Amino acid sequence: MTRYVMVADLNRCVGCQTCTAACKHANGTPPTVQWRKVLDVEIGEYPDVRRLFVPVGCQHCADPPCMHVCPSTATGQRADGIVTIDYDLCIGCAYCFVACPYQARYKVTQPTSFFGGALTVNEAQRHDERRLGVAQKCTFCADRIDAGLARGLKPGVDADATPACVNSCIANALSFGDIEDENSNVSTLLAENAWFQMHAELGTEPGFYYLWNGRLPVAAGVEEGGES
Amino acid sequence: MIRIGSILQTSWDWRAAGNFILGGTGGGLMLVLAAASYPGRPPLLTGLTGLALIGLGLFLVWLEIGRPWRFIHVYFHPQTSWMTREAITAMVLFPIALLALAMDAAVLTAAAGVLGLGFVYCQARILHASRGIPAWRDPAILPLIIGTGLTEGAGLLIVLAAASSAAPGWVPFLFVALLVLRGCAWVVYRQNLAASKAPGATLAALARAHGPVFMAGNVVPLGLTLLALLVPALAGGLSVLAALLAIGAGWYMKFIVVTRAAQVQGYSVGRLRRGRPVPKSPVRRQPDRFVA
Question: Which CATH number applies to B14-267?
Answer without folding.
Answer: 1.20.1630.10
